[in-house]
Design a protein that fits this description.
two-stranded antiparallel sheet; 8-stranded parallel barrel; single chain; TIM Barrel
Length: about 290
C-alpha cells in the first residue's frame, strides 16, 4: 500500500480509501439511492477487515448514506480499531423532513456533525467535508460552523465535496481572512471518462495545496470491465437501470476496448488499469474504492 500526506496537513493516509456508501439495507426506502444500499452488517465487517488487512487506513462515509445506517455500521465494523484509522464523513444533504435538516447553515452543520459523532461512536472526526454547496446559505456561515467544530475538538480537519473551483476558492479565502483552519481536501468525481475537473479544480487544488480525494474512480462501474459495446448492460449490472454518471458512451467503449487489449498484455484487469491511471496523477491523493 502507498501512503501520502493529505493536502497541506500532517495527516498520513493510504492512497486507497474504503467508501461505505452501500453499507445498510434500503428496503422500503423511497430514497433514490436505496437500491444500492444492500450491504448487511456481517458483510460490512468482513469488508472492513479485508481493507484493514490490505493496509487501508482511511474510511469514508456520510450522514446521508443509508439514512445514517452507514456510519453506525462502520463504527461497529471498526470497533476498537477506530483509533488506528482516519474517518472521513460529510454533511450537507437532507437528513430529515424539517426545513433545517439540510444545507450548510451553522445550525445544520453543527447538529449534523454531532449526530454523526454519536452514530460513529467516536469523540472526534478526522476529516469533515461539506457534501455540497448550499446556495441559500452564505459561505461565511458555513465556514464559521466548520471552525466552531474544530475549536471544540470535534473535528480535526475540514474539506469539501462537489464544489466548483470558484466556490472552493471563495470558501478558502474566507477561512484565510478569518484565521480559520483551512481546507485540506477536495472530494471530487474523476475517472478516465469523466475529466472535467482537470480544467479548473485541479489547478486550484495544486495551487492551494489541497489533496484530491477521488470518488467513483470506475465511473460508477462503467470502467469495471464488464460493460462493453457488445454488452452495454454488463450482464444486467447496476448501470443497466441506473446510469448516474453519464458520459460519451461511444468514446467510452472505444477506450474500454483498448484497455481490454492492454490488460491482456500486462496480465491485469480493466479496473486495475483505470485505478493505476489515477494513481499516476501527482495531484490525486486518495482514491475511494
Amino acid at each position: 500500500m502507498q501512503y501520502t500526506r493529505l493536502g497541506n496537513s500532517g495527516l498520513i493516509v493510504s492512497r486507497m480509501a474504503y467508501g461505505v456508501m452501500t453499507f445498510g439495507v434500503g428496503t422500503g426506502s423511497s430514497h433514490p439511492m436505496a437500491h444500492v444500499w444492500k450491504t448487511p452488517q456481517a458483510e460490512a465487517d468482513a469488508l472492513v477487515g479485508r481493507a484493514l488487512d490490505a493496509g487501508i487506513n482511511i474510511f469514508d462515509t456520510a450522514d446521508a448514506y443509508t439514512e445514517g445506517q452507514a456510519e453506525i455500521m462502520l463504527a461497529q465494523a471498526l470497533g476498537a480499531r477506530r483509533k488506528d484509522v482516519v474517518i472521513s464523513t460529510k454533511v450537507g444533504f437532507r437528513t430529515g423532513p424539517g426545513l433545517l435538516h439540510t444545507g450548510g447553515s451553522f445550525q445544520h452543520v453543527v447538529a449534523a456533525t454531532e449526530a454523526s459523532l454519536r452514530r460513529l461512536k467516536t469523540d472526534y472526526i478526522d476529516l469533515l467535508s461539506i457534501h455540497r454547496l448550499d446556495p441559500h446559505t452564505p459561505l461565511e456561515e458555513t465556514a464559521r460552523a466548520l471552525e466552531n467544530l474544530v475549536q471544540r475538538g470535534l473535528v480535526r480537519y475540514v474539506g469539501y465535496s462537489n464544489f466548483n473551483a470558484w466556490q472552493s476558492a471563495k470558501l478558502l479565502g474566507i477561512q484565510q481572512r478569518m484565521g480559520y483552519s483551512p481546507l485540506i481536501a477536495a472530494q471530487m468525481y474523476y475517472s478516465m471518462v469523466g475529466r472535467d475537473l482537470e480544467h479548473e479544480v485541479v489547478p486550484f487544488c495544486k495551487d492551494a495545496g489541497l489533496g484530491i480525494v477521488v470518488w467513483s474512480p470506475l465511473a460508477g462501474g462503467f470502467l469495471s470491465g464488464r460493460y462493453t459495446r457488445k454488452d452495454p448492460t454488463g450482464g444486467k449490472g447496476r448501470l443497466a437501470n441506473f446510469d448516474f454518471l453519464p458520459s460519451d458512451k461511444e468514446k467510452g467503449y472505444d477506450l474500454i476496448e483498448r484497455m481490454h487489449a492492454m490488460a491482456a498484455v500486462h496480465k491485469a484487469t480493466v479496473a486495475q488499469l483505470a485505478l493505476a491511471w489515477l494513481l499516476s496523477k501527482d495531484y490525486v491523493s486518495v482514491i475511494l474504492l
